[in-house]
Design a protein that fits this description.
Blueprint: H1 5-36, H2 38-49, H3 54-71, H4 75-102, H5 107-112, H6 129-142, H7 153-168, H8 173-189, H9 195-220
Helix pairs in contact: 1-2, 1-9, 2-8, 3-4, 4-7, 4-9, 7-8, 7-9
Length: 222
């Protein structure tokens, strides 16, 4: 599978309307439900969220690369672990950049300031362009975690990792999909993200990994 322009824009055309629909009709009701029932879902959601911590996969990729380069020389497995490392680092950087651009308040922050629902990028235009940029920067500087909901970074990591697994072991496609959806759902159960954040994170993780795969695909073949 290659990341062509056709694939890139096809994915955007499909996903963007879904994100808009979720934003307008599903995000708040679902987030409110899990917030009101957080004593039931929060702990389990946090446990699932551990699977989206990028350090596990970045560390595994780096250690695997070093092992198969210097301890047990194997060119194929060295490049596979390097692929895992690059996919997670690159997708993570893209995720951070998008979080700073869109600056969406998390569900938890929304319960303290209901009027803040949405993206800083599309708010306060009455301030003027430069005043809006200043407000955006100051808000993100002082509250980087509160306004870092879109896209879900954990979901980006999960999507990137399981896209790597699919590209290396395509016969287990359905297993990777089931695991990916299960792990990503933890971000909603924990009350840390909206549904549309998960959608966007999935797309970012997949497309970023396909970009890296395009650069490395000749080295990853048996």
């Amino acid at each position: 599978m290659r990341l062509t322009k056709k694939l890139f824009f096809t994915v955007l055309i499909i996903v963007l309307p879904l994100v808009v629909i979720s934003y307008n009709f599903f995000d708040k009701p679902v987030a409110d439900y899990f917030y009101l029932h957080r004593e039931i879902f929060h702990h389990f959601g946090k446990l699932l969220s551990l699977t989206g911590e990028s350090q596990w996969y970045i560390g595994a990729g780096l250690l695997g690369f070093l092992f198969f380069k210097y301890v047990k020389n194997n060119e194929l497995y060295k490049n596979r672990f390097l692929f895992l490392f690059y996919a997670n680092v690159f997708s993570g950087l893209v995720s951070i950049l998008l979080k700073w651009i869109f600056s969406r308040v998390r569900p938890k922050g929304l319960h303290y300031s209901p009027e803040e629902y949405g993206f800083l990028l599309f708010q306060h235009y009455d301030k003027g362009f430069f005043a809006q940029l200043k407000y955006h920067y100051i808000t993100m500087f002082h509250h980087p975690s509160t306004y870092a909901s879109f896209p879900s970074g954990h979901t980006v990591t999960i999507a990137a990792t399981f896209t790597v697994m699919y590209l290396l072991f395509p016969r287990y496609l359905y297993l990777w999909i089931i695991l990916g959806i299960s792990f990503a759902s933890g971000r909603i159960l924990a009350g840390d993200h909206f549904i549309s954040d998960i959608m966007a994170g999935t797309v970012v993780g997949i497309l970023a990994t396909l970009f890296i795969y395009d650069k490395m695909r000749n080295k990853l073949k048996k």
